[in-house]
Amino acid sequence: MGRSVAVVVGLVLLTSGLSGATASAGTAAVCGTTVTEYASAPSGAVVVDPAHDSELAQRTSDSPAGTTFWLKPGTHTLGTDAFGQVQPKDGDTYLGAPGAILDGRGVNQAAFTGQAKDVTIRGLTVRGFAAPQDQGVVNHDSGTHWVIEDSTIEDNRGAALMAGDRQEVRRSCLKDNGQYGMNAYRAGDGITGLVLEGNEITGNNTDDWETKSPGCGCSGGVKFWAVNGADVTGNWVHGNHGPGLWADTNDNDFLLRDNVIEDNDAEALSYEISHNLTVSDNVFRRNGLVAGRARAAKDDNFPVATIYLSESGGEPRLGARTHQIDIGGNTFEDNWGGVALWENADRYCNSPANTSTGYCTPFATKTQCTAPGITQKPLYDDCRWKTQNVTVHDNTFTFDPAHLGCTQFCGRMAVLSNYGSYPDWSPYKGDVVQQAITFGQNNHFSDNTYSGPWTFVAHDTSRVLTPEQWQAGPYGQDQGSKF
């Protein structure tokens, strides 16, 4: 991106098919490492002394745009006001010497705020901030093209990071934050061109938001909302309390490659009412065990997946690098489940069952999506987020129920929907969507390798198939696959 970076911290690249014994360190073992690149102040930098409370905020206010600040070793603070914060100007750069910490002490809500552009933060530890729910500590107001590199953002409430257009996060540790490692949400037009490369994202959602607010959909390592274009490469996403990565509502054009995603309580990847995705050359391990055991204990047979596609599919009418959801060349080891393709028959634009309240597909409006117009094409199609144009191919799926502590409902692949029933004016009642996702929306599994007692759920939760039934008519799935 036009810059040279002298230090790469803890980066161990993996290829697809790598065995579990080899990759326990992950692709990006960043947390706990020390960056020495910024051990001395660059020429012309403003030196910030931790001995003086709020000096960083004051120096930033007093300096012109485009200033470089070098934070000396030690703990820097921002006063006793909840709104004590740093407000960068366009082009400002913040470099942390080894041992430089910006500490909110549980008092300040945010560290770096405002909508300045082209802000850079490198080599800094940011901790102890008390951001409210759904808010973030760094880039609180989603400024454009912030670059966060070689930094540690840990032990905060809320999200470690918010995101803005063209934000780049590299070789950084996003660890043990109360809600998210990053909340990629910006009100209005959303976010474009997001880059996450070589980061370690671990232990987030320490405040257990799904228990505090059941059904909030507000937990995990990273949450994406209305992001158009994201490259998520070479990251180690592990041990998050909830999903590892969760793209929710009108995301488009995502690339996930060369990541290790493991030991997350729920899905490794949840891709929900979104479009156009490539998932390749990743390693997925031991994801969904907490969620799977909880569902099994309640005798709930809905498939718990490693990759969960919920009303998401390939859409050629949107600009993207692919016009399908392509899941290929990945290794899956001892996860609770495999890949699940789901479409809620009652969830569509303007339906009371759509939990993304106020949002519609890119091709219709809430006003349009009502009876009688919704009963006819094109609105009949354009008011739905469809799980369509999905290919799952050339992956390796391995699991042993004994490793998972599983006695029922694990080791499942799925293509299914529910019986449409709500609201009264819905044109999607009955098995219309069940038939469509199973047989009519170009969803195909092929050329995969399976090891373990896998079963396959098709059409609805009651229809559980053996590999032979899954491959035979009328399903015809997993042609060329090995069991």
TrEMBL record:
- Name the InterPro entries for this protein: Beta_helix, PbH1, Pectin_lyas_fold, Pectin_lyase_fold/virulence
Q: Does the keyword Signal apply?
A: yes
Any one Pfam family here would be Beta_helix
Task: Provide this UniProt record's keywords sorted from A to Z.
Answer: Signal
State the signal peptide span. Answer: 1-21
Q: Which residues form the Right handed beta helix domain?
A: 139-288
In Swiss-Prot or TrEMBL terms, this protein is called: Right-handed parallel beta-helix repeat-containing protein
